[in-house]
Design goal:
The structure holds 3 protein chains of 3 kinds.
Chain A (H helix, E strand, L loop, with lengths): L5 H19 L1 H34 L6 H8 L5 H19 L2 H9 L2 H7 L2 H31 L6 H28 L4 H26 L6 H30 L2
Chain B lengths: L1 H16 L4 H20 L17 H27 L4 H33 L7 H22 L4 H14 L1 H10 L4 H4 L15 H38 L1
Helix pairs in contact in B: 1-9, 2-9, 3-4, 3-6, 3-9, 4-5, 4-6, 4-9, 5-6
Chain C lengths: L2 H7 L12 E12 L2 E11 L4 E5 L6 H9 L6 E8 L2 E3 L1 H5 L2 E4 L11 H12 L5 H10 L15 H12 L6 E5 L7 H16 L3 E5 L3 H4 L4 E4 L5
Parallel strand pairs in C: 3-8, 3-9, 6-7, 7-8
Antiparallel strand pairs in C: 1-2, 1-4, 4-5
Classes of the chains: A mainly alpha, B mainly alpha, C alpha/beta.
């Protein structure tokens, strides 16, 4: 890893992955279609909730206030659970498509060529960046749609952005190392979710904790920094352990 | 390979001459027997517990097992670290795997005993109390580790490496469960205060049973660990003879 | 100065090896797969300008031996010593200065031949402009097919592209496993030419094969699976 230019190698791999991805669109469509299908399911569930709640609306005397209407159309969940649901959605979408990064290399046998030309550190960095960018793109598209559908507030925009970015950093770290493990274990999709999701339970709890700081009535600066920092530290720790142990997965 | 075969030979000869470590194994039996007796006849009924405090007696078995279930994960992770950095041989891998398997077993025991206690004390088998959440996540991590081991077939070296890496990566959520989660304000509110057992408020008879219980279960773990390791050795020898 | 830097700084034409002494020695090599011993106590030495052939029946571990020599697989026993210009190279360093052609090597099907070569040349630190690309493609008989996706190539063309990949950065060591698999007569002649040129330029070659014709290219032969 001390070899000069490992970052250049990582960017070369990133560029190659994007070139191949733009041509085949396997990971992109897997993540995208999954995310939108899940979003549709959630929207449908919301609609049924809306129906169930708007039934007594018909019996209400006129005039119905706009405020009441909007409250009825948006189920009365607290914003923290909405944030949690959004991240459950993003986690499942990530796990639907991000395994592609390593599984494809392993299945098509191109790892040999990569191992002949790259160090393990560059491979991990390149794959991690690819997964991170893909996840950020999906989150950028999904989150506004989800916010419109569920009426999730953003709280303080800056903190919300921090939470989302820290979440993406952690989620793509888990997705990358688990994809590498699952690919080397020679058993595709099924194993990927089963060994990855247990790592994400604690991650989701940290996210909910960050959400509680985000939607607190009077958010204290220290509490917010602690909550978001806790989330970020989980991601960074997973990333660090993965980067340090990845060579043992990559070498044989 | 050469070292492990030598160890097997020495173990078989020791097994032929007598039970190794007989003294501490009999001590384990005596301590566990004392704990079983003490839990029902020495310790008094706990204050603030249902059923005249008799419900509290499960604590002598539940708490040591629950504590062990997370400590054993660290034992497994330390062996995994050793495998990757210092001793990349099958012996270290077997130790890591044996610890994880026993940890999984302790974790199941802790979950079941905890759930029984919760049903009797709080009226429901599952309350999503943070401690229950932690143990269920721990259970998932153990299960995922064993699943990965099982799924990585043919090549034992690859299996050893992948499972060691997973053990270390899953150490991060493990550490968060122990150090960070109890300090989260969002989760504190769910937390019924009476699950925390304050040692300074427990009576002398309780300590007389609880402390030996910790010792006894730890020794039991070491004993089971050695037995599991011998199973691995026998399996390795059989596959070589075939 | 690292090897990669050397390869960038010394402008060498593809296929040309810098005349630096290099040896590859297998010392008491053994490999176990899932409790089964593939081979053990293998020893040989190859020097500059030599061709070494590894033969043996199916399952005797020819490919495994070459993978170990390439540093792609760690041996269960013994070691492979590669000394290049008086410097000993470990498995990871070794991988970056050798050319490897084998059935288990695959290039990206979703990229074109030229994109594959550009990508790997960039990783190897080899300048790959258009003339260089045309030169290397025509050398392996793929002139005019660089813009096609590798997925559309025939198996013989893929084998030829593997040679273009292996020759990137003009490695001193060539490891060829079943070098003429899927190749036509012209392709076989190309490989023979390549091996001869590599030998002339002082490079060392290890070939794993069972073809009598290719066994004849070697200066020495290691036969696996005889003792068992």
């Amino acid at each position: 890893m001390s070899r000069p230019g490992w970052a250049a190698d990582a960017f070369a791999l990133l560029e190659k992955d994007f070139r191949a991805e733009l041509r085949t669109r396997v990971a992109m469509s897997a993540v995208g279609v999954f995310a939108f299908a899940a979003l549709l399911l959630i929207a449908l569930a919301m609609a049924t909730l809306k129906d169930a709640r708007s039934a007594p609306l018909l019996k209400l005397p006129d005039p119905v206030s706009l405020d009441l209407l909007s409250r009825l159309s948006h189920p009365a969940w607290d914003p923290i659970s909405k944030l949690g649901l959004l991240w459950v959605l993003l986690c499942f979408s990530a796990f639907a498509g991000l395994s592609h990064s390593f599984l494809h290399e392993e299945e098509s046998g191109t790892t040999t060529a990569l191992r002949l030309t790259m160090r393990s550190g560059s491979v991990f960095a390149g794959k991690y960046l690819f997964n991170l960018i893909l996840l950020v793109l999906v989150a950028l598209i999904i989150t506004p749609v989800y916010m419109v559908l569920t009426g999730m507030e953003s709280g303080s925009p800056l903190v919300f952005l921090c939470v989302m970015v820290c979440g993406c950093v952690g989620l793509s770290a888990v997705a990358t190392i688990v994809a590498a493990l699952a690919a080397k274990a020679h058993s595709s999709g099924a194993l990927y979710g089963a060994i990855g999701l247990p790592l994400l339970v604690v991650f989701l709890l940290m996210l909910l904790n960050a959400g509680s700081a985000l939607y607190a009535p009077e958010p204290g600066l220290i509490a917010t920094v602690r909550a978001v920092g806790g989330l970020l530290s989980y991601g960074i720790l997973i990333l660090a352990v993965s980067a340090l142990t990845f060579q043992f997965v990559w070498e044989e | 390979m050469a070292t492990s075969s030598r160890q097997i030979d020495s173990q078989t000869t020791r097994a032929a001459t007598g039970v190794p470590g007989l003294w501490w194994k009999s001590a384990t039996v005596i301590i566990i027997a004392y704990v079983i007796y003490g839990a029902f006849f020495i310790a008094g009924g706990a204050v603030n517990f249902a059923g005249n405090g008799n419900i509290g007696r499960i604590i002598f078995f539940h708490v040591p097992v629950a504590v062990l279930s997370s400590v054993v994960y660290f034992v497994g992770a330390v062996y995994a670290f050793h495998y990757l950095t210092r001793h990349p041989d099958m012996e270290t891998d077997a130790k890591s795997a044996a610890a994880m398997e026993l940890g999984f077993m302790f974790c199941i025991l802790a979950t079941v005993t905890g759930s029984v206690f919760a049903a009797a004390q709080w009226g429901s088998y599952w309350n999503w109390d943070p401690r229950e959440t932690s143990i269920v996540i721990m259970l998932l991590l153990y299960a995922a580790y064993l699943l990965l081991r099982g799924a990585t077939g043919e090549d034992p070296v690859r299996r050893a490496r992948l499972s060691a890496v997973y053990a270390l990566v899953a150490l991060v959520p493990g550490l968060f469960l122990i150090w960070v989660m109890p300090r989260l304000p969002a989760l504190q509110s769910l937390h019924p205060p009476d699950t925390i057992i304050r040692m300074d408020r427990t009576s002398g008879t309780y300590k007389m049973v609880l402390y030996p219980s910790f010792l006894g279960f730890t020794m039991l773990f070491i004993w089971l660990f050695q037995m599991r390791l011998r199973c691995y050795h026998l399996c390795a020898r059989r596959s070589r003879e075939l | 100065m690292s090897l990669a830097e050397r390869q960038v700084n010394e402008v060498v034409k593809p296929g040309q090896c810098p005349p630096v002494p290099c040896t590859l020695a297998a010392v008491d090599l053994g490999r176990v797969f899932g409790g089964r011993e593939v081979f053990s106590h293998i020893a040989f030495q190859v020097g500059s300008g030599q061709v070494h052939v590894v033969t043996g029946p199916n399952g005797s571990g020819k490919s495994t031996l070459l993978r170990i020599a390439a540093g792609l697989l760690s041996p269960s026993a013994g070691r492979v010593d590669v000394v290049w210009n008086g410097r000993s190279l470990d498995g990871v360093d070794r991988r970056e200065c050798l050319g490897y052609v084998a059935p288990d090597l695959t290039l990206y099907r979703e990229l074109t031949g030229a994109e594959n070569l550009r990508f790997f040349a960039r990783l190897r630190g080899v300048a790959m402009d258009r003339p260089a690309l045309v030169h290397i493609l025509s050398e392996v008989g793929l002139k005019g097919r660089g813009r096609d996706l590798v997925g559309t190539y025939s198996s013989g063309m893929r084998q030829r592209l593997k040679y273009a990949f292996a020759l990137l950065g003009s490695p001193v060591i060539l490891l060829l496993d079943e070098p003429t698999a899927n190749l036509d007569a012209e392709g076989i002649a190309m490989v023979e030419r390549l091996v001869a040129a590599h030998r002339m330029q002082g490079g060392l070659t290890v070939i794993g094969t069972n073809e009598p014709r290719e066994v004849g290219w070697g200066d020495a032969v290691t036969c696996l699976g005889v003792g068992n």
